[in-house]
Write a structure and sequence with these properties.
Structural class of chain A: alpha/beta
Number of helices of chain B: 15
Order of helices and strands of chain A: HHHEHEHEEEE
Number of strands of chain B: 11
Mean pLDDT of chain A: 86
Low-confidence stretches of chain B: none
Distance between the termini of chain B: 54 Å
Shape of chain B: elongated
Strand content of chain B: 15-25%
Number of strands of chain A: 6
Distance between the termini of chain A: 34 Å
Strand order of the largest sheet of chain B: 7-8-2-11
Strand order of the largest sheet of chain A: 2-1-3-4-5
Oligomer: heterodimer
Chain lengths: 194, 430
């Protein structure tokens, strides 16, 4: 009876994964690779920087309206598979919510919108249709890169990340803002394991 | 029991060991069924067999790389990507030395450690992953794999893998950088690939296409003396005939055959004085080359473009095993010493117990025949420059007599001008 009970308990102990919910803002570095903390650090710094620079006011003064931004190519040139969309999406949300900047759909996002608009042209009631040719053109394109430099010796590795973002004027190709965030990690792996 | 009776019993045991050990199959032995299915052209069957085998924690990496390769051959690129990505952190973790596994190998059985792919296997895994990304059109992620190949080489081997096992992965890295519009980075990778091919054992394999890329890029980047140096090394290459990498083109990588399989060779010896039996088991390689000798591409208006062999892993696998052999033999001797001591200790209790311990020790003395056995043994590369109006390209595989073995047609109608498309094809049968 004791054996059966013990076996049952052991099986129960071994079968259920242990899940602990943690704060999304908490720092959890497991492998040393790019993670959610890095993405959050980049977006926080970039948002603070882009909103504090004079390009917004200069645009308002010359154009008389809020600047409109489209997200272009953010290239991952690093050693890791990094999802750049996490911090780009954070930036979009904060900038739109600040009320000082507008975003328009990127080339990949608007494909579906245009297909729907074309469908409306054919199938929707005339007074409810959204006409083609009414899109707002972007004033600036956001582009960028993530680069890494890796230095490794034995079980120790130092990884340097540099995220560079640029706002380029669609009118005259001027670069009106450049943001940069650097992150450096010293990762030491054990030479032994169980 | 008299010593002569015990000696006779041991002889009998030694004779039956050959029969009994056929039942003592390790994970490495079991994978033979997966390979056999692949060589019969039954890729889905191979995957089912692999999943049915499952894997313990110490064979998890081997399971994942095999799964990644088979899924890729089946055309499930996303599944293959996931399998290879799951293998990477495990491989990184296993780079650390395990004390318990080391002790196990020295005292109990070879293969008690977690399987860590050999250098050429790790590099070719990253090359396969790069091809996965290229075939989904994600050149940027393929570029990440190229950088990871470089980082791994620097970290593990100061830049150059043993036996030139990095030759094709570096060559592929160059192709990726060229496709990504980075001729300078491409030239760096091609240079390294050139040196790696020179380091490879076995018959000389130096792709002409690599020579063309070296001459072309050195010229394009204004490195005239370097261009001339490569032109001398590849006298048949004419700069005027080298295709511009910025034009519309299809690159097809053909995987043929499988790498040599590791099988066990055992020898049982009896000590005439003590009557104890000792068993020494070591791996050896069995070739599994295919009949593919030529690959050609055809499309409307073009007679035929020939590809060339760019990777042969059999010489690398053999040289790798040769490098491992002293360690394998030393550990086998060490285990026999330890087990002999254990049998002696048991003999203080009873002669029967000593016989039993000696018998069991010999039975479990298996060779570790684990290897990434679903890795293609050879790879061919076809470079097909495409006029804008070409929509289909047919790739054919022939044996050395020109007898057709297989053909497949690729639809490239959506390939834009100035772009490079990558495709793969496998022929694993003999």
């Amino acid at each position: 009876m004791a054996v059966v009970l013990s076996a049952t308990l052991l099986a129960a102990c071994g079968s259920t994964p242990k899940v602990q919910r943690i704060d999304t803002e908490s720092v959890t570095d497991l492998s040393g690779k790019w993670n959610d903390t890095d993405s959050r650090l980049v977006s926080q710094e970039m948002i603070a920087d882009v909103l504090s620079r004079p390009w917004i006011e200069e645009h308002r003064r010359t154009e008389g309206n809020k600047p409109t931004i489209i997200v272009g190519s953010i290239r991952n040139l690093s050693h890791e598979h990094i999802n750049v969309q996490t911090f780009v999406a954070d930036m979009e949300r904060e900038l739109i919510n600040s009320g000082r900047v507008d975003f328009v759909a990127s080339s990949t996002e608007r494909t579906g919108v245009r297909e729907e608009r074309l469908d409306q042209d054919l199938n929707s009631r005339e007074d409810t249709r959204n006409a083609m040719g009414q899109e707002i053109g972007a004033d600036y394109m956001l582009t960028g890169t993530i680069n890494t430099i890796v230095d490794a010796e034995g079980r120790r590795q130092v990884t340097y990340y540099q995220v560079d973002l640029t706002l380029i004027s669609m009118k005259d190709n001027r670069k009106v803002w450049i943001g940069q965030k650097k992150i450096k990690k010293d990762i030491q792996r054990s030479s032994y394991r169980p | 029991m008299t010593s002569s009776v015990a000696g006779g019993l041991r002889l009998l045991v030694a004779g039956t060991l050959m029969l009994i050990t056929t039942a003592c199959v390790t994970y490495g032995h079991q994978l033979a069924s997966v390979d056999n299915a692949l060589q019969q052209g039954n890729v889905s069957g191979a995957l089912q067999l692999l999943d049915a085998l499952g894997a313990s924690r110490r064979n998890e990496v081997l399971y994942l790389v095999n799964k990644g390769a088979i899924l890729r051959m089946q055309g499930d690129i996303e599944g293959s990507i996931a399998a290879f990505e799951a293998a990477k952190p495990l491989m990184r973790f296993q780079e650390a030395t395990s004390i318990s596994e080391t002790l196990g190998e020295l005292s109990v059985v070879e293969g008690s450690d977690a399987y860590q792919p050999r250098p050429f296997e790790q590099l070719h895994m990253r090359a396969m992953q790069a091809l996965n990304f290229l075939e989904t059109g994600d050149v940027e992620s393929a570029r990440v794999e190229a950088l990871q190949i470089d980082a791994f080489l620097e970290r593990a081997f100061d830049g150059a893998a043993p036996q030139g096992g990095d030759a094709f992965p570096l060559y592929l890295s160059g192709l990726i950088f060229e496709a990504n519009g980075e001729p300078d980075a491409a030239l760096v990778s091609y240079r390294k690939a050139y040196r790696a091919y020179q380091r490879q054992p076995g018959p000389a394999l130096m792709p002409r296409d690599l020579g063309e890329r070296l001459v072309y890029l050195a010229d394009r980047l204004g490195l005239d003396s370097e261009r001339d140096e490569y032109a001398r090394a590849f006298p048949s290459v004419s700069l005027a005939d080298v295709p511009d990498s910025r034009q519309r083109q299809l690159l097809v990588v053909v995987g043929a055959g499988l790498v040599p399989r590791r099988v066990e060779v055992s020898q049982v010896q009896q000590d005439q004085l003590s009557g104890k039996i000792y068993r020494l088991s070591l791996p050896r390689l069995v070739s599994r080359t295919s009949r593919v000798a030529q690959v050609t591409a055809q499309f409307a208006g073009e007679a035929g473009i020939a590809g060339e062999r760019v990777s042969m892993l059999e010489p690398v696998a053999r040289a790798t095993l040769e490098d491992e052999m002293p360690g394998l033999i030393a550990r086998a001797i060490a285990r026999n010493v330890v087990k002999n001591a254990a049998a002696n200790q048991a003999g203080k209790e009873s002669e029967g117990l000593e016989l039993f311990v000696n018998f069991v020790s010999a039975v479990v003395e298996n060779a570790d025949v684990r290897s990434w056995s679903t890795l293609p043994g050879e790879q061919f590369l076809l470079r097909v420059p495409l006029p804008d109006d070409v929509g289909d390209v047919t790739v054919s595989l022939q044996d050395r007599f020109g007898v057709p073995l297989f053909q497949e047609t690729f639809d490239v109608s959506s390939l834009a001008e100035n772009r490079t498309a990558f495709r793969s094809l496998y022929w694993l049968q003999r």
